[in-house]
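Model: Ready when you are.
Researcher: Fold this.
Model:
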Amino acid sequence: MTTLPGPCDSPAVVTRKRVPRVLPAMRRMMAKRGLHGQRSVSPPEVRKRGQGRHAAQTRYLGPMTWHSKASAVGTLLFVLLSGLAFVATAHATPSFGSHDVRTVFHIAKSDDRNRVDYGVHLNAQCQPVGEEPVYAYWHRFEPGHPRFGDLGFMDSRVYGITSQAVRTRSDNGTWVEMHLAAFPEMRILVLIQRHEGQCVARAQIPVRNRPAFVDRVFVQLRPLGVEYVRFRGIDVQTGQPVSERRRPPSQW
């Protein structure tokens, strides 16, 4: 016969008598209803065995937290890898051939004396090497850096060559058509010829709506932007110096 506890009994004694019987019954009921092992909070908890409830709440990591951490880690890795790639390419030396024309034309900026040069790979017969012979590289005049260097990732988005193709090959000259990222709508034609035993290459760009051999492009910078771009060269028909100041492209 079971004796019920009286009002003077200690709560501790009551707990010791009822726990062995109540807990198995509750577990059976929860298992029958499919609630065994579940809690009111559905996201998983990160908790070591032996820690209390408050410790579990302080260390709770929900799905959004895990997603945020994964996104942060992925972004950090991307930035680090991009930075390493930028450093590696920025200090790499471009490969020059013995018959190359290293500077067909160049783009200079107002912030320093460094510039981006565009050269062309040629063989002994002054013919382009491959179907994409034109290349871009840094030609530095400021101290503290190597004299020559490949374009970095961000540099290529402005000064890089987006497309090029050899259009004609002949003894009188070879034409290479190319486009730059900074001027996507402007067609640049590179004429390659042999003159007095030397390989010569010139870039033909429209200046004042007339064909001109342009050897330099100057970019005047301003805070957070570009003020203007100036093209300088020689008129193909008259041989006179020409210059044109243009507004920067919209993507600048």
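Researcher: Now this one.
Model:
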Amino acid sequence: MIYGILKGQGFKEEETEEEESIPPLLKVDNKDFEGKHFNDMVEECNKDGHVQHPTPTSTQLKFLDREIKSLKMDVDYHTEFAQKLAERRDMLILIVKTLKRSVQEASSQGERVSQDREIDEKTIADSEGQDAQDAVDTSKFEEKLHKFDGSDSSSATD
């Protein structure tokens, strides 16, 4: 289309014009194609057809050691946090029991107490049952954790 417009304006194509050659962007030496390079992107297979995995190096072991230490620190932090929450829960249970006693004493003295302030016995029983379950779950978790580091559960509480 552009050629048609140019031809209509009197443009004549000269035979002497040649297209400019574009210089190569990258010069390649043929000795690079002799097959002496190692392709590290291909996984090597043994005779059985299974992929051979490299043996762990010192950097891999250092990385794994750092990760294990980091996870242990996280576990210690969360264990400490769980203990603080358990102490807070126990304190709240104590407050609930104290308030319940004061409500019962007030009602025994003839004062009328609204039903909104009554405390459900089931809440206290559930929280005490949850304490026992949390202790079992924590001990199971610590057993699994100490399988990895080779220590017993008594050293984890120290």
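Researcher: Key takeaway?
Model: Residues 92 and 98 are 10 Å apart (CA to CA).
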